[in-house]
Amino acid sequence: MSIKIYLPTEYFYLKRTCNLYGQLHISEDNVVVYYVMDVDSYKPDSDSNKMRFLGAILCNDSFADSSYCRSHDMILCFTYTKDSPNISLIFTGITPERLKPIKLILYDQEIVRSLVVKGQNTLNHWTREGHDECDFYMLAHLVQPKPDVCSNSAGLSFYGSRPLSLLANMPMQLLENIIGNTFVNSIITHTIIINQLYSLLKVLEGSPIGLKLNIHLNNFFLDCFKYHIELWSTFLDLIEPIVRQIFLAIGAFGCFGLTYQIALLADLISIVGLHAHCFYVYTKVLNNVELKGLSVLWQVVRGNRYNILRNRTEAHNYMNRQLYLATIFFSAILFLFPTTLVYYIVFATLKALTSATLAILDFIRRKLLNFPIDIFLKYFRKGFNEIDSLRVLDIPLQKQLVFTHRNSEILIFVYKLQV
């Protein structure tokens, strides 16, 4: 069993006699938590439901023994001396038989009050989170200046979320401007993509970068790909009005944030560039077939074959007509392979660029989802603090504080809450 005492920082260095008001809480794991919130300025009529009389800070000369504290219904008592810079714990009303080191946690009331407490939601949250975090939530709830803290918190939360709402509305405005932009309109009308693919096929016609391609196979590829582009262009012409209306309707959900718009842009690129993906699949299949054919026919030309039972390549006597046909097919595929390889490299590069663009958009979207922009805004405003932003720092003292309990000295460790 242990004891925690939450004490305002200025009271730790107080050098006058005063009463302490606050609250007492005993957790399920038998941790006694004292919340000291106010001194003599406490008015019972205003906040009687949140604070009670805990004890006092007394001068060491006027303090007699623990019976004095019990006679005055104290459950917590500190003393001060002129020589010591801080007060010392003398008495606790609830003290277990076996006591662990006591934790004295100093806090700034303004920082703790800036923790937005949302009434019943926070009370329910106590039972789900760790005990230390529950202490912080309860402390933030208790130090609020008025009982109607829930309404104040809602107003503060709305005021604090105003920059967030502005940032959430920005993607909506940006999307409306982008939809009306000529560049994006040309993407939706697929003119840029179609024209660029036609330009790419025109470059491949003839001898690109000095490569001598097979004329007949090259013309066959060009005719197939041009027909595929025209077919896809016709299909996009049919679905263009529907796609435009769908994206304009979906754009109305710009309040979902910039990540939602990035996901829409990625989907748009995937739809418009589907035929380029098909070209990559075609050339990849042809390239793999030719590579496999060359590897098999090369073994036949050399007079070898693969023995499945022994899992090795062995010499084999082929018939003359078999060697003749294998040589013809090997030569034909070998001379056609550079043309297929050029098309495969070109469309594989195009596919890699498209995949890289989609990967970059997905990376940006995930980083924006994980980016704690609300915490940064609250930090720069210096008005709101999250529980996760609190730090518990160890306070070095000139002299180690101890608490005498049943003729034994219990160490008192002093900490401070900071943002």
Automatic annotation (TrEMBL):
This is GH12693. Coiled coil: none annotated. The keyword Membrane applies. GO terms for biological process: GPI anchor biosynthetic process. Signal peptide: none annotated. The chain crosses the membrane at residues 246-266, 318-337. It holds the Pfam family Gpi1. InterPro entries: PigQ/GPI1 (IPR007720). PANTHER family: PHOSPHATIDYLINOSITOL N-ACETYLGLUCOSAMINYLTRANSFERASE SUBUNIT Q (PTHR21329:SF3), PHOSPHATIDYLINOSITOL N-ACETYLGLUCOSAMINYLTRANSFERASE SUBUNIT Q-RELATED (PTHR21329). GO terms for cellular component: endoplasmic reticulum; membrane. It comes from the Eukaryota. It comes from Drosophila grimshawi. Keywords: Membrane, Transmembrane, Transmembrane helix.
